[in-house]
């Protein structure tokens, strides 16, 4: 056990800016709102953080797990942390804390949980399905990325439409980069930002199954939307998405990861998948669906039901290949919001229309639910699940989260 700290000492919680991929998971998870960010760094407010450890398990990179033992009055301020490109060196604790009694322990991963790590975030699980295969994570960090070669890059939305989404295939040659459906990776865009600092990595879901975009090959695919405006609609060219969408065959990219140890598919026979996505949130659904499609002959799949939201049919990534999947393999429900002459429809509207079938899946203990795409959809989808499930939703929701049966990844 750690000795209690003297009142003037602090185990300051810090985030390593060199490893952090700015995925926002820690800020979303923190129960006391101690974590915040600016355009560059995620930081922890020493005046608020109570070392509850809730943010530690969900962090994909481990950048969250940094601690400094120091005098409380010398704690790094938010302004200090916003200015960092790397963590400062550890300061030596004052002499009176170095002698007898033994030096105070800075917390280690397994040494401190002062509270139990939660099995879920507010809406989804932080544990994988019980039968999920064990994932590899964090094999490559920003200081030692792996190089992958672009072997394919083509647009999967119609050329004359506003949404420019690309299917990008990366080959790892003989370098080890094992993935499972639902995992993601980080891309390090070349060059520097306005302050002359190297760009931080951006995270992308993997769109291909574990045995490769091409079965048996050491390659994988991504589904990347070119960012051409900011969230207020002002023209803005996203750094990494434009870099990726403009890559040519033969180019190399710097990759980190893989990331993700809970948004994984069940491995046991007859598990049902209820998949709800918008736009590029279709990437992990493509990976899972394709894994199931490749094993149709084994007759082990459960029911697959997909709700997929996009502006129009022509802006729905992978529309053509999706429509070719057999009806008895996957139950596909499109929700199009800007299709001319049609009322606006969101995935949650489509779910309510199929309430009887969604309710049947929810009632089945073998059903695993995946939600991925726009942050804005999360509340609406959860409300739709609540409406479909009826009075028992709160208990069912808690059970789904605890059992690794409800996974939410929005950005
Ligand atoms: P930046 O230069 O970083 O600029 C970001 C700014 O662009 C934002 O502040 C905002 O104003 C604006 N913006 C507009 N649209 C978006 C958007 N969709 N996402 C982020 N910022 C936007 N993206 C994919 O295309 N495919 C994926 O499969 C995918 N998976 C993700 C999985 C996770 C877990 C997370 C956290 C994010 C994922 N993203 C995915 C988003 C991706 O990581 C980048 O944030 C996105 O590509 C924008 O990066 P950028 O460098 O082009 O833009
Ligand atoms: P909208 O036409 O209102 O933008 P995008 O193309 O921006 O990635 O969005 C994918 C789809 O998600 C679009 O149809 C978009 O509709 C829809 N969408 C936007 N906000 C929400 C929301 N709050 N809930 C569900 N779907 C949404």
The count of domains is: 3
Low-confidence stretches: 101-117
Sheet with most strands: strand arrangement = 8-7-10-5-6-9
Instruction: Name the average pLDDT.
Output: 92
Shape: globular
Total helical elements: 9
Strand content: 15-25%
Instruction: Assign a percent range to the helix content.
Output: 10-25%
Main beta-sheet strand count, sense and barrel state: 6 strands, antiparallel
End-to-end span in angstroms? 38 Å
* CATH architectural arrangement of the largest domain: 3-Layer(aba) Sandwich
Strand pairing plus helix content: what structural class?
Answer: alpha/beta
Number of strands: 15
Write out the distinct hetero groups bound to the structure: flavin-adenine dinucleotide, adenosine-2'-5'-diphosphate
The CATH superfamily title of the largest domain:
Nucleotide-binding domain of ferredoxin-NADP reductase (FNR) module
The CATH C-level name of the largest domain is: Alpha Beta
Order of helices and strands: EHEEEHEEEEEHEEHEHEHHEHHE
Fold and architecture overview:
The chain is of the alpha/beta class and 411 residues long. It folds into 3 domains: 9-119, 2-Layer Sandwich (Alpha-Beta Plaits); 121-133 and 262-410, Rossmann fold, CATH 3.40.50.80; 146-259, Translation factors (Elongation Factor Tu (Ef-tu), domain 3, Beta Barrel), CATH 2.40.30. It has 9 helices and 15 strands. It has helices at 25-29, 78-82, 239-245, 282-293, 319-323, 347-353, 355-362, 377-389, 393-402; strands at 9-14, 35-37, 42-44, 66-71, 146-155, 165-171, 184-188, 202-205, 219-225, 252-259, 272-278, 304-310, 331-336, 367-373, 406-410. The strands form 4 sheets. It has a 6-stranded antiparallel β-sheet. A 5-stranded parallel β-sheet has the order 13-12-11-14-15, sandwiched between helices. It has a two-stranded antiparallel sheet with strand order 1-4. The two termini are 38 Å apart. Mean pLDDT is 92; it is low at 101-117. The protein binds flavin-adenine dinucleotide (FAD) and adenosine-2'-5'-diphosphate (A2P).
